[in-house]
Known about the structure:
The chain has no helices and ten strands. By secondary structure, the chain is an all-beta fold. The strands form two sheets. A six-stranded mixed beta sheet has the order 2-10-9-4-5-6, with no helix packed on it.
Amino acid sequence: QVQLVESGGGLVQAGGSLRLSCVASGRTFSTYAMGWFRQAPGKEREFVADITNHGTRTNYADSVKGRFTISRDNAMNTVYLRMNSLKPEDTGVYYCNRQFGVKWDWGQGTQVTVSS
């Protein structure tokens, strides 16, 4: 079973930036498309962005398009999320997981809080 460890969250003012990282255990990371998801207080977990297994294509939720950038380093078993021009509505716990198929066990996530 793959283990996922997210990091890089924090408290930032509106307009600021953060870079999230997610490290996956195991030797098959490069075979999977990966995604970032987030969950705001009192809301369901939602899709943020995804990237194909070799990083050739990316896809974003409309709410983050043009502000967030997903990337990956398969040699490091890591997927990143660069977040610019952050808004208070971006506040939530951010998680990574495989994009398609049965999800691996969710990690603990990383908290992002954007103050106005």
